[in-house]
């Protein structure tokens, strides 16, 4: 009896916490379809006018394009460097390894405003301030640890005999990597890439320091919008970003399961 | 003979090991270099900025040099005529070469009136002194006859300074260069640091209270159900921070859904004020950081064999005793990891408090960005950043000792 009551209490608390996590995201979805410009429920009528404003606005279009460019630069650098490093550090024990790992992971931990301030001072004399490429480089440094971690995680299940067998049969190191290692760690590489892309796509503080009006990214555009006057247009953008997050999350989750299956963990 | 071969074998094995380590490091090198150039060097640059003084030694070299012996003297009066003469000469040069505004900006950080004092004096400076230069300058503005302005010039006359770091800790040097607490009406930085720590502490505690039962429930469910519910935990994690902040702004506003629901339930008669104040900041930050608490606790709890609890209860321990004595201690590594992670992330928070909080709920990060982007006081911004970085690195050090850097997991 006591166990049942405990079970009920535990379930109710858990469901309440899950609701706290998810419901706030869902509240803005219906408001973004409102025909009125005030932000409350219930909505007086359904309309797509805010989506029309959003999708036909050159400012939002430009911001979206900028974000995609910066995200692509950041992700490609982070994935290349992070994957190489994860392979290099795997089963490689040496003195100072934990210190090195600590430094390589630190971009995830250091307060973002410090990164922004440091980059602001560092980029200006190099002519990289107010450029999408500069912002991409800063974001790549922030995203690389995610790739390092996800690829390292997939490598822990990787049987090194596979690679040895391939090279003993005469494959060059590059062929071994392309044909044996890469297919096994691919889920880790892709989910690392997703993390790195989201890190860049969502990053606003460094963008506030490093971008001018021409390099305005999507988060920066949203930030200014929320700050000045939060309108249903912003909620329409937010709704699209939630859909985007769901797609990314499900992709990452599928990859995780596939990777576990490939490595025979589950 | 056999010993020789063993030694040879051992040596060649060691060589092979070393080659493998080096090859591995070779693959890691690109990331090390990239992190160094685009992450470590910019941060090191910020640290340097926090002790870098400003342009005075370049703009007024002679005055700067002459002020050093004056600064070293025990009790200071106004400097002697040589300093005045050198200063007057260099002030005119600076004015002609248009480097004066830069210096005036630096001096204005010492006292908000010094920019106009310097600019006005330069405009009215004659070719030759009437009487001594000291009389001429005090004739233009009596402030030149006071110790305060010379002490300020003295503080600006070196290449390295502790002014900014002291200011970031609400201290300053007085006219005799003794360290003193800043006037309470202008002491805002320590208060903002303490506020940041306080908000982070409350948020960490709330996250723990919410995450622990949820993680326990998930860890004791069958794997497939747990994975399904885990998606709900991860969804906010993948959703843009600005989206979540915008949602909370909408939910917490006066006419928002939360106030509507509470009124409909009859719990309140007047709408609660939940945005642009502390409760709003804490609610929204708890929501943003909660997944970072659930994940480490859950991953530790999943490794606790259920038999332990069964054994304890079958030996007669009531559930709560068994939980307290067996399960909870085993889950502590996850709790420590989660709390440290959430606290470290919370003290660097900026966007959510900026958009949802009021003037008295700003974290130290937003103060740093205000100083850097609005007042352009880069030295002070860098100094405050240095203080924040020191706190973070100390906590991160504890984290890597307790949890290890391999322990950072991502869902």
TrEMBL record, chain A:
Coiled coil: none annotated. Pfam families: BPD_transp_1. PROSITE patterns: ABC_TM1. The keyword Amino-acid biosynthesis does not apply. It is found in: Cell inner membrane; Cell membrane. Keywords: Cell inner membrane, Cell membrane, Membrane, Transmembrane, Transmembrane helix, Transport. It is a multi-pass membrane protein. The keyword Cell membrane applies. The chain crosses the membrane at residues 7-33, 63-87, 99-123, 135-158, 184-210, 230-255. It comes from the Bacteria. Residues 64-252 form the ABC transmembrane type-1 domain. Signal peptide: none annotated. SUPFAM superfamilies: MetI-like. PANTHER family: INNER MEMBRANE ABC TRANSPORTER PERMEASE PROTEIN YDCV (PTHR43357). Belongs to the binding-protein-dependent transport system permease family. This is ABC transporter permease. It comes from Ancylobacter crimeensis.
């Amino acid at each position: 009896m006591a166990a049942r009551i405990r079970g009920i209490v535990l379930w109710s608390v858990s469901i309440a916490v899950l609701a706290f996590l998810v419901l706030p995201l869902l509240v803005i979805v219906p408001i973004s379809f409102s025909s009125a410009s005030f932000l409350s429920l219930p909505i007086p009528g359904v309309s797509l006018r805010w989506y029309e404003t959003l999708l036909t606005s050159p400012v939002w279009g430009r911001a979206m394009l900028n974000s995609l460019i910066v995200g692509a630069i950041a992700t490609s650098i982070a994935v290349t460097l992070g994957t190489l490093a994860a392979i290099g550090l795997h089963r490689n024990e040496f003195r100072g390894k934990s210190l090195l790992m600590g430094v390589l992971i630190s971009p995830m931990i250091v307060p973002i405003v410090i990164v922004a301030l440091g980059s602001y001072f560092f980029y200006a004399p190099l002519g990289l301030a107010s450029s999408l490429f500069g912002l991409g480089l800063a974001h790549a440094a922030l995203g690389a640890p995610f790739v390092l971690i996800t690829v390292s995680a997939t490598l822990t299940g990787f049987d090194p005999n596979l690679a040895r067998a391939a090279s003993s049969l005469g494959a060059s190191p590059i062929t071994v990597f392309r044909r044996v290692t890469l297919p096994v760690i691919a889920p880790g590489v892709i989910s690392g890439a997703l993390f790195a892309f989201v890190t860049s796509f969502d990053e606003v503080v460094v963008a506030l320091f490093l971008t001018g009006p021409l390099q305005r990214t999507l988060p920066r555009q949203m930030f200014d919008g929320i700050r000045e006057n939060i309108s249903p247009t912003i909620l329409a953008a937010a709704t699209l970003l939630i859909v985007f997050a769901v797609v990314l999350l499900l992709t990452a989750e599928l990859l995780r399961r596939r990777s576990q299956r490939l490595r025979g963990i589950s | 003979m056999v010993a020789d071969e063993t030694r040879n074998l051992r040596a060649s094995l060691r060589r092979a090991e070393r080659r493998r380590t080096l090859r591995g490091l070779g693959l890691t090198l690109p990331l090390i270099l990239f992190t160094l150039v685009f992450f470590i060097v910019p941060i090191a640059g910020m640290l340097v900025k926090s002790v870098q003084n400003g342009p005075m030694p370049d703009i007024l070299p002679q005055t700067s040099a002459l002020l050093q012996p004056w600064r070293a003297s025990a009790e200071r009066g106004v400097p002697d005529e040589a300093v005045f003469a050198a200063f007057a000469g260099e002030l005119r040069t600076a004015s002609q070469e248009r480097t004066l505004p830069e210096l005036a900006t630096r001096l204005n950080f010492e006292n908000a009136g010094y920019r106009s004092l310097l600019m006005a004096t330069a405009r009215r400076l004659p070719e030759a002194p009437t009487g001594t230069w000291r009389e001429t300058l005090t004739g233009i503005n009596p402030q030149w006859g006071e110790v305060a302005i010379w002490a300020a010039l003295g503080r600006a006359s070196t290449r390295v300074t502790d002014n900014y770091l002291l200011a970031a800790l609400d201290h300053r040097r007085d006219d005799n260069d003794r360290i003193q607490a800043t006037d309470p009406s202008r002491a805002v930085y320590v208060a903002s640091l303490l506020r940041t720590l306080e908000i982070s502490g409350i948020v960490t505690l709330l996250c723990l209270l919410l995450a622990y039962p949820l993680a326990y429930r998930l860890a004791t469910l069958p794997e497939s159900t747990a994975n399904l519910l885990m998606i709900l935990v991860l969804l906010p994690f993948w959703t843009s921070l600005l989206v979540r902040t915008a949602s909370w702004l909408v939910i917490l506003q006066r006419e928002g859904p939360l106030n509507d629901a509470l009124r409909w339930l009859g719990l309140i008669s007047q709408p609660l004020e939940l945005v642009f104040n502390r409760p709003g900041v804490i609610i929204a930050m708890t929501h943003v950081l909660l997944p970072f608490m659930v994940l480490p606790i859950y991953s530790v709890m999943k490794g606790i064999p259920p038999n332990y609890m069964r054994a304890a209860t079958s030996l007669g321990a009531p559930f709560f005793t068994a939980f307290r004595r067996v399960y909870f201690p085993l889950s502590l590594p996850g709790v420590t990891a989660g709390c440290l992670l959430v606290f470290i992330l919370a003290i660097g928070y900026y966007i959510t408090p900026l958009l949802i909080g009021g003037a008295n709920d700003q974290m130290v990060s937003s103060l740093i960005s205000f100083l850097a982007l609005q007042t352009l006081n880069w030295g002070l911004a860098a100094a405050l950043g240095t203080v924040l970085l020191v706190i973070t690195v100390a906590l991160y050090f504890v984290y890597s000792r307790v949890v290890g850097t391999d322990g950072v997991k991502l869902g």
